[in-house]
Automatic annotation (TrEMBL):
Catalytic activity reported: 5-hydroxy-2-oxo-4-ureido-2,5-dihydro-1H-imidazole-5-carboxylate + H(+) = (S)-allantoin + CO2
Protein name: 2-oxo-4-hydroxy-4-carboxy-5-ureidoimidazoline decarboxylase
InterPro entries, alphabetized: OHCU_decarboxylase, OHCU_decarboxylase-2, OHCU_decarboxylase_sf
Pathway(s) it belongs to: Purine metabolism; urate degradation; (S)-allantoin from urate: step 3/3
Organism: Umezawaea tangerina
Length: 159
């Protein structure tokens, strides 16, 4: 997508798949489309801040790979995910697998973090710190991480 002007004027049906790659929540996609035109990129990125329901959070994370794993599908979000997780090195891969499993047993869903700029060690520390959260608090944390990921992806989508 070449720039904000094109985003503001493109037909909604052309943008819907791209926005879904940023955050797979139909209500959010509809709200972003309905709020066009955006005066600047920051206003568009601010649309990533959304309070998601529990079902929306679970639906949105369903398409995300575990930290340290490749996406299960091809497409724009799979490429973005690989780039976002580029800080994960093989020296922590086994520990990430074990930590992911413990997290999933505790919370019933994958560990999700906005991994851009984080090393594998930083992600392990973040995951460990979040294990003490109660399930409702952790869902709110995941909501925030989804918003951060969506904001990054929106910037990439219009760059």
């Amino acid at each position: 997508m070449p720039g904000l002007q094109a985003f503001n004027t493109a037909p909604a049906d052309e943008l819907r798949p791209l926005l879904t790659e940023c955050l797979a929540v139909p209500r959010w996609v509809d709200a972003v489309l309905a709020a066009r035109p955006y005066p600047d990129v920051d206003a568009l990125v601010a649309a990533a801040e959304v309070d998601l329901s529990t079902d929306e959070i679970h639906g949105a994370i369903a398409g995300h790979p575990r930290i340290g794993e490749r996406a299960r599908h091809d497409g724009v979000s799979a490429k973005w995910s690989a780039a976002e997780q580029s800080g994960v090195d093989l020296s922590v891969a086994d520990r990430l697998v074990a930590a992911n499993l413990a997290y999933e047993e505790r919370f019933g869903h994958i560990y999700l973090v906005c991994a851009t700029g984080l090393s594998g060690e930083q992600m392990l520390a973040d995951l460990a710190s979040r294990m003490g959260n109660d399930p409702d608090t952790e869902l709110r944390v995941v909501n925030g991480e989804l918003a951060r990921i969506a904001a990054l992806r929106l910037r990439k989508a219009i760059a």
